[in-house]
Amino acid sequence: MKTIAIAGTFDSKGKEFQYIKDIIEALGLNTFTIHTGVFEPIFKPDVSNYEIAEAVGMDMGEISAKKDRALATEVLAKGMEKLVPQLYEQGKFDGIISLGGSGGTSIVTPGMRALPIGVPKVMVSTVAAGDVSVYVGSSDIFMYPSIVDVAGLNSISTKIFTNAALAIAGMVKFENTQRVESKPLIAASMFGVTTPCVNEARAYLEDQGYEVLIFHATGTGGKAMESLISSGHIEGVLDITTTEWCDELVGGNMAAGDKRLEAAGQNNVPQVVSTGALDMVNFGAIDTVPSKFNGRNFYKHNPTVTLMRTTAEENKQLGMIIAEKLNKAKSPTALMLPLKGVSLLDVEGQVFYGPEEDKILFDTLRENVDKNIVELIELDYDINDKNFAIAAAKKLLELIKNN
């Protein structure tokens, strides 16, 4: 019989957790309870808060005596991050659910993030309707808005809690057991403006017996890709779309952090890298663009996404960053430059066509890439030309074979 872990503050929200526990058990599933509160729980859990603290070498009694909420939250979050994946490996549960406000969410989600992708994870939270990237990271946590506070059983909360319990039960009980043919995996980065390139390369690689996992270069996508590369499951990386560095540098809303472009090089995974969509920074709706950028070249991609053309100086800085990252690579690495444009918008006749900006980007890369570490390949095509896509795919296969 499948088991669902229920994790949360059973001291302050014991009735709410008992409610979903009863629903799940009524559906014929077992429950496994983990108490993440500071004080005594309303019902006896399978895993106590003392055990969570002990996982990171701390004493819960001493922590509760200090009455320091921030300290307690930090210790419990770190303990959950360490203990939850261990409990899963021991076969204690098949999926996990929690309820909470910002505090409860920040305690449980580190443990959820530490679980493998595909393990059902449901977080009912008061902060689920906002920016949840800090809680979800690059994982597959299902964040469910609680609508009302997780504080009591009422006509709204009981409906939300019931739906959440049914959701996790369905995820666990009706798990897809159909087996997909196992193939070596390639990770690829894509944006709307580099889609033709990546689709062409993907088709070629799939014909050669590979499965291509495509990550949308929206910040979260880049983080997820880097994480999966580090996990050791990827044979090669086709990092066509490095645009997330534009947002990291300039202040757009799709940055992937300063570790982007490191995982493949540091984990001996062959990589082909290009300059896809380095012509743009991403913002939200046009009226959300910071006033300091007034006068820049903008393109309204859709009502909620505004693109801003990168300048010559920004392209120089981007070239320096990418060269620095690739020069640290310990894996076979090739950098491919599309000399006629880095995106669908950066070709002659389009709104971001910028031969001067591209020249500075390419010149900076030529001057700063260590040719003893990185193979520099220049092609007289734009990035979405079929010839560029196939060349990139073939080069990656060559690097994988020679590795």
UniProtKB/TrEMBL annotation:
A Pfam family of this chain: UPF0261_C
Cross-referenced InterPro entries: Tobamovirus_resist_UPF0261 (IPR051353), UPF0261 (IPR008322), UPF0261_C (IPR056778), UPF0261_N (IPR044122)
Residue ranges constituting the UPF0261 domain according to the UniProt record: 2-176, 183-400
Superkingdom of the organism of origin: Bacteria
Protein's recorded name: Tm-1-like ATP-binding domain-containing protein
Lineage of the organism: Bacteria, Bacillati, Bacillota, Clostridia, Peptostreptococcales
